Structure formats: C-alpha cells, structure tokens
Amino acid sequence: MRKSIIKHSLLSVGILGIGLLLTACGTKSSTQTSNKLAAKQQIGLSTTAEITSLDLSKIYDKTSFIQIDETFEGLYRYDANGNVEPALATKTEISKDGKTYTINIRHNAKWSNGDPVTASDFVYSWQRAVNPKTASQYTYLFDNVKNAPAIVNGKLSPSKLGVKAVGKYQLKVQLSRPTTYFKMVMARETLYPLDKKVVEKYGKKYGTSAKYTVYNGPFKNVGWTGTNDSWKLIKNNQYWDKKAVKLSQINYTVAKSPSTAYNLFQSGKLDLISLVGEQAKQLGNNKDAVKRPLAATEYLQYNQRNGVFKNRNLRLAFSLALNRNQLINKVMQNGSIASKGFVPLDFAKNPKTGKDFADEAFVPGTVDYDATKAKQYYKKALSQLGKKNLTVKLLSADDDQTKDVIEFIQSELQQTLPGLKVESNSIPFASMLARASSGNFEVNFTGWSADFADPISFLSQFTSNNPENNGKWNNQKFDQAIKNSNNKDANNPTKRWQDLINAEKILASDQGITPIYQPNGIDLVNPKLKGVVYDRINGHYDYRTAYLTK
C-alpha cells in the first residue's frame, strides 16, 4: 500500500546482550510506570521512521498511513483478516451491472473542529487525489472510477470524476467497469474524506504539521511539528463513536534502533515492539510474544530508464546470488518467509481450486539461490554491457534494521559475482522515498504491503504508466494481462485469476524486480494491552478499541 513502504526490524546476531534480552518481565520501576499509564489509559508506541505528512492525498509511507488510520475514518474499515466492515457508511446499494454504488453515510460524524462530515467531503477528497496538481502516488486506487485515468493524465477536469453528493449524506459512485473488490478500495486511506474548508484555509501548509490538520477519526494528532521524532495522539471527543474509544492518549516515538525500542519497552514506556534478530531468537517463545503474519514483500527495484539494469541477465544474476533462506534464518529469525514471487504466500486463493496464488504463479529459476547460474548470468551480462567489472549503488533507508539487510545483500552479491562492487547509500527514510520516486537511484531496497486482499493490489503498480513503477520496467504482455483482468475478464473470476497469474509469471521471468522476503514478524506486547486489531493484509494496527487493563 502506499508507497506503503514497510520497514521491519532486523538485527544482526550478537548486538544485544543475552542478559538484556532475558529480562522481559521488566523492573519494579517499569511496572510502576505501566500501572500509572494504565490508570490514565495511555500507551506508548514506536515507529522506525518519521511521519512524512498528514495529508492523506499525498502520503506514501507506512508510518504516515498508520497515523492516518488512527486519526481519520472512511466509508469502510478493515478487520483482522483484511475484510471490510462499515465505518461511516450505513447502507450501500450496488447496481445489477456492478458499476454504480449508492452509499448513505452517518449523520452524526464530525471533524475535530466540529464541522459535519458530509458526502461532499468525500467528493472533494477524491477529486483532489486524482488531480495531477496534487501528485498523489495512489491514484491507481481510482483506476476503475469513471474518468479517473483521463483526469490523472490531465485530459479531463477533476470535476468529471464519477463521484457526486446526492444531498448532504448520500454518495453516488460511478465505475467504468465492475470491480468486485471496490469496497476494499474504499477502505484505503486515500479515499477518506477531507474538510475542504480547512484544506483550502491552510493551502500548502495543510498536513505539514499537527496544527495544520483536522481529523474525523478516533484520535487527533498533537505535537507533530513536521520534523520531530515524537508526538501524541489524543482521544477525539468529536468522533461519532467516541464511546468505543477507551484510550485517552498514545505516545509515539521514533526508534530506529531495535535495542532502543527494547529498552523503552523494558522501562514501561512502550507497550508493543517488533522483535528482531537475536531478540526474536531469545524472546520468540515468550508468553507475551505475538506472531504477526503480513501480506508484504521486501524487494530490490532496478532503475531501467537507462544504464546497466536494462540488462535482464544482470537482474537474474542479482536474484540468484541471494541466499534468502540464510537471510531469514540466520539474520532475521522472526518468522519471515523467503519470497516465491512478488505476491506473498497465504494472501489469495484460486477461486476454483483453492490453490495459493504464490504457489501457482511461482517460476523456478527466478528466486532460487544458485551461485553457479548467478555467475553465468553475470558473465553474460558483462559481455553484453562491454564491461569487465561493475560498480553499482544500492539505495536504502538508514535505520539500523534496514542496514543489516543491506549488509547481507551487499556481502552476498560481492562474494558471488566476481568483479562486482556494491556501494551502500543509506539515507533518511523520507529522503530515500523522494529519491526513489524521482528515479534518482540504480538499485533500491524497498517494500510493499497490500492495499487490500487481492493480487491486483501488488501487481498493478508495475504497469508501464503507474506512478509507483519507480524503475520504469516496461512489458507489454504484462500490461495486457492486467488490462484483461480489469476489463474483459473483470466479472469472470476464473479468467481474471489466470490473467493475474500470467502477469506475476511475466514479472518474475523478466525479473522486473527481485523479491527477497515476506516480512512476517513477532511482537512483544504488554499483557495489559487488549483490544488491538492487527490487519494481517496490510500490517496496520487499529487502536480504536484498544485499552489497558488496570
């Protein structure tokens, strides 16, 4: 989702002392701190990266998406299995041809400034998102809304988008084609409403800090200045279902180092952390450890605008040189899974046979570790490129967890491929995203978690004209397969499934990207923290109904 770039915790073995790891029960002082916060219904959480924006039309990273999840609300929300349930929608009628949605919304929803949430707020938000001037990276979510592609490409006015308000509390959406998963799309953050009055009041400042934002969700952000690494979410007393919200405050801090996060957990200042490396090994069976499956993939994307990575043999050499099982078993040790393709395992099932998508779409010889074949592909690539050796730069975020993965990738590639030098370029998360989006990279380590529970959520971003296709990989057969799934086969589940299988196989065979692993994880959770909803599809945590037992 998004760039839903995911940053999960990795830590090389031996960084933390065993004595530190085995004291998960905490100290007397940490227990006292926890009890005081429980009485106030305050919890502490951390992220591995800073917020980039609170403007839901412009965000692209997981940290910001999670903040939007807690402070805004759309027509639908996701449950723990990625299924949708009504949020602001009270009734939805779908026409027989599947192309018209008539949605009634709640009359008692308000913004944190007291303004009513109306159907017009959704119309404004959707039109703003597809407006090229907004430069949203998630316009593809609107692809099946009438006129959206033409608007995104600057050929039509945003006012022509197939959405309109029918009175104050009814929304009518016109699709260009039937879309069986459209309710899932409407639960995505980019389709949440916006208070037009506030957005236009602050202009370019909107969403750049907490004070230049207004909220309609269970919490509101306080204290984020746009650059700081700590902030608070406090209960939004204007929220329509505030009786369901038990927490009074969530204290957020950025902890790029797993050891920092662990120390904060030990001291009672954090109530949930992700375990990594030696942490996962030592504490994975702790009574307070919780396994977190996730529909996501971490991968290498190659800049194929020009340069050496237009060469398929080089891309295949990189993929086959990586021992993914060693990475997940020796470095990560947290339940992550070696990738079989871009779409992760246990994400989607064949509607006819029940077979897992990742198994059915797997292409042997594309992600299997094979040093001999990797050398052969590399030798061919060098010959075709007219080079005797090669130096490439690998762009990534600069948090400690990512650095451990990069060190592993760097070592594997250089040891397996003779004459190859990989220069690591680790920079702040937001800067990395900006550089990747602008195409200013050679190879980029990044990740993607699902927007909703359908393979199209992964695959569509690599069509030729998708703004998320940062490396500009281009394959006409792939584009056609995605087009078929969205058009002529949209209402035929079996044919649509095969279209998506074909697309995944094309992407894998050409190594348009190199999938590395599916970042399933393990959390260490304060046993007093209850009512948290974890969505295994996109990896987001919902604290709307969370609370601390006393």
From TrEMBL:
Subcellular location: Cell membrane
CDD domains the record matches: PBP2_OppA
Gene Ontology CC entries for this record: ATP-binding cassette (ABC) transporter complex; outer membrane-bounded periplasmic space
Keywords: Peptide transport, Protein transport, Signal, Transport
Entry superkingdom: Bacteria
A biological process term (GO) from this entry: peptide transport
PROSITE patterns: PROKAR_LIPOPROTEIN, SBP_BACTERIAL_5
UniProt GO MF annotations: peptide transmembrane transporter activity
Domain Solute-binding protein family: 84-469
Membrane-topology annotation of the record: Lipid-anchor
Family: Belongs to the bacterial solute-binding protein 5 family.
PANTHER family hit by this protein: PERIPLASMIC BINDING COMPONENT OF ABC TRANSPORTER, PERIPLASMIC OLIGOPEPTIDE-BINDING PROTEIN-RELATED
Protein name: Oligopeptide-binding protein OppA
Species, as recorded: Lentilactobacillus parabuchneri
